[in-house]
Amino acid sequence: MKPGIHPEYRPVVFRDRAAGFAFLTRSTATSDRTIEWEDGETYPVIDVEISSASHAFYTGTARVLDTAGRVERFERRYGKRGER
């Protein structure tokens, strides 16, 4: 890497306010706000809208929406599961 052209890579806390979840990782992202972490150190904090703690895919609350009867049309055309 060329010196002086890359952003600083440092520990940063990402916080999902909706789920009350935060994690410490390394990033080049910057923030003016800081937070005191569990280890007593102060780190920059970045608030995010969605994380693995609040995303429907990871929490198991994801639903398949059938807006146009596609499942029924498929079953009429090709038969239901388990039928021969």
TrEMBL record:
The keyword Translocase does not apply. It holds the Pfam family Ribosomal_L31. The keyword Nucleotidyltransferase does not apply. One of its GO terms (cellular component) is ribosome. Signal peptide: none annotated. Keywords: Ribonucleoprotein, Ribosomal protein. It comes from the Bacteria. SUPFAM superfamilies: L28p-like. Belongs to the bacterial ribosomal protein bL31 family. Type B subfamily. Part of the 50S ribosomal subunit. This is Large ribosomal subunit protein bL31B. It comes from Streptomyces johnsoniae. The lineage of its organism: Bacteria, Bacillati, Actinomycetota, Actinomycetes, Kitasatosporales.
